[in-house]
User: What shape does this take?
Amino acid sequence: MPFTVEEFLGVFKSYNNLVWPFQIILFVSALYIVFVIIKKKKYSHRLITFILMFYWLWIGIVYHLYFFTRINPAAYIFGIFFIIQAVLFYTAGIAGKKLIFEWQSNLHGYIGAIIILYALIIYPLLGIYFGHVYPENPTFGLPCPTTIFTLGILIWVKGKIPMYIIVIPLLWSVLGFSAAFTLGIKEDTGLIISGIISAVIFIKVQRQVRKLKAA
Assistant: This one.
């Protein structure tokens, strides 16, 4: 690592102090996404995609390019990939209208719900337990908890999901976990677990769709 744990936590502190209280708006918007999916508001699919797109654009520009580059040159690359993910969300869900979000009372629905719950509630509580207290903690709107949330929401996509949408979140679930866990962010264990579970579900759904088309 080209930086120390103290420098890493210091980036969180600088970010949280500067953008406060925008973290609350980001968190409330995540709750809104969950609400409109469960309530099955048909008008909401593109709006949900727009919010997800904003998350990844925000992290790419504000966190990676503005804050994280101060201690890690690789953050320029990370920022670009997060911005690309935002563009992919626009392409698939807004321009292409290929992302239809729907809560279903089945195994996949409940797994997605657990992952979302982890991102929004369990993740910060574990952070406090492990000694990561505000402002030196990864709040929602920062890469790892937001990636976990994104994966949970994408599990709720009805039918086949464009594969290009899930590549970067899955890659970050590995890269983000390996780096953050090394630096003592133990709550990011949920990142790699959610990545593995999501990958299995996405592959399973893809195979089911292909079988239905072939039948």
